[in-house]
Amino acid sequence: MIIIQNNELPKQMMTDFFAKHWGTPEMVISSGIFRCNELDGYAAVDESGEIIGCITYVIDGKDCEIISLDSIIEKKGFGTALLQQVEETAK
Asked: Measuring CA to CA, which residue among 1, 86, 13 is closest to residue 45?
């Protein structure tokens, strides 16, 4: 597994990922409506280049809000690794 920025992947790949796992790239949460395929974030990809995890976030001043977090394979630490990457970015 490697972690890369979402914008290093084809946008259609991110759009398809969100459509498959969420039904749409649009996320409605208490702080607003977001298009996850257009947000900053990171993807965990396997050796074949397939997305096995993804996190998106918004930084506003000193605040960092996670908008989405997906880990396709559970209990392998992919979600934790993605969260840690965003924590480092937010610092």
From this structure: 1
